[in-house]
Amino acid sequence: MTEQVKDSKSKIPARIFKVITWLLAFGCFYMVYSKVNSAAVAEGVSALDFVWNFISEANWWLWLAIMIPYSFFFFLVDSHVTWRAVRWFNAPTLKLTDILPIRGSAYILSLISEQVGKGGMTLYLWRRHKAPGWQVLSTMIFLGLMEIYQLLLFSFLGMLQYFEEISSASTTLPLHIILVGVLIFAVAYLPLHILFFRGYIGKSLNLRNHQYLRAFREAQVKHYALTVLFKAPNLIGAIFVYTTALWLFQVEASFGQMLVFLPLIFLAAALPLPFHAGALLIWTLLFPDYPEVGIFSLIMHTFFVLFNALIGVAFLPKANRELFDESTADSSAAQ
User: Fold this and answer.
1) Does any domain span residue 318?
2) 140 — alpha (psi -120 to 50), left (phi > 0) or beta?
3) Is residue 60 part of a domain?
4) Do 93 and 335 meet the contact criterion of CB atoms below 8 Å apart?
5) Tell me: the pLDDT tens digits for 101-132?
6) pLDDT at 234 over 90
7) Within 13 Å and on the Cβ side, how many CA atoms surround 73?
8) What is the DSSP letter of 211?
9) Distances (CA, A) of 194 to 88, 190, 197, 218, 220
10) What range does the domain containing 207 cover?
11) Is-contact 301 262, C-beta < 8 A?
12) From the centroid of its chain, how far is CA 116?
């Protein structure tokens, strides 16, 4: 009975966090709906008709002709980056062709939760390469940090090239001021981060010795730089795809705007909110003249995750054999 009470108490913070995230998500959706409804009233139509007009005016065939190839491209680049990091920190003998099935299948699991998808990859690396789970988790954390820095880097490059344009466009949100402050913090933090985990500063702290941070202890400066470089094609492709897709939905956007805006939108999408509600709200703040871009955000995200999961379905039989076939796992471990 005592253990049940303890388990119940231990779940309280998680439940509170879940309630908070859902309330925040509801708030984001309500704000987006309010903007859409206001625009609809100004045009003398209902919110539903306003959204339908936006959707019906899009060039859907050309949109699919752009989105489908990019989804395959994203999968290949993402798999390559994951393969590189796992080879560096967990399984030096891993082949690129070995990571494709499990990376693709992880997209299916990610429909439930991103953590579930990472759990599938962790299970695969443990069974096939005897890589401890906490050490694999450290690699996933490393990749996550580098994703953030890649997004900030591209935003910085965009700010350098289009600072005046972005400043004039930042009417609802002082984007240029916020971004500069975040960039200053990020640039100041990274050298300290590397020096700490390489053992040059803070030697008395035990934090660096945890297994879930092992990848940072092993990582050299070149690993940080190469990871950002390997990830870059996906974001460059995304800037082109999203800018073109906005044009197809009759939303005016420049490549310069998207070079700055899209990394911020992706950062908002990484917030632990249901339905990527953070990104949904950021879209409407960045494009105040087009409140319907919130619908655009939902369309893009839904297609992307579902099509990636469809790619994973093609790899699912091979992934299942490698995960659950004892003879396959044993022979791989022996190698």
Assistant:
1) yes
2) alpha
3) yes
4) yes
5) 888 888 887 776 666 667 777 878 887 778 88
6) yes
7) 16
8) G
9) 16, 6, 5, 10, 8
10) 20-334
11) no
12) 15
d(CA 87, CA 98): 12
Q: Which two tokens stand for residue 70?
A: 């990019």
CB neighbour list of residue 215: distance below 8 Å, 6 or more residues apart? 85, 88, 89, 135, 138, 139, 141, 142
Q: How far is CA 244 from CA 72, 127, 305, in A?
A: 18, 43, 19
Q: Is residue 189 one of the residues assigned to a domain?
A: yes
- Positions of E strands within 176-322: none
Which residue from 238, 148, 231 is spatially nearest to 193, judged by alpha carbons? 148
Give pLDDT tens digits for 288-328: 888 889 889 889 988 998 999 899 888 888 777 776 665 45
Q: Global pTM?
A: 0.83
Question: CA-to-CA distance for 40 and 291, rounded, in angstroms?
Answer: 10
Rounded Cα–Cα distance for residues 178 and 2 (Å): 49
- CA separation (Å) from 86 to 80, 114, 209, 231, 249? 10, 18, 19, 14, 39
Cα–Cα–Cα angle for 79, 274, 139, nearest 5°? 30
DSSP state at residue 136: H
Q: Is residue 251 part of a domain?
A: yes
Residue 334 reports pLDDT greater than 60: no
Q: What is the dihedral of CA 312, 316, 318, 324, to 10 degrees?
A: 130
Give the chain's domain count: 1
Structural tokens at position 3: 């253990």
Please count the other Cβ atoms lying within 10 Å of the Cβ belonging to residue 25. Answer: 20
CA-based angle 230:153:232, to the nearest 5?
20
Q: Which tokens hold the place of 237?
A: 């492709």
Closest CA to 242 of 273, 272, 224, 269: 269
* Length of the chain counted residue by residue: 335
Whole-angstrom distance, CA of residue 44 vs CA of residue 119: 50
**Which residue in 269, 290, 218, 240 sits closest to 32, CA to CA?**
290
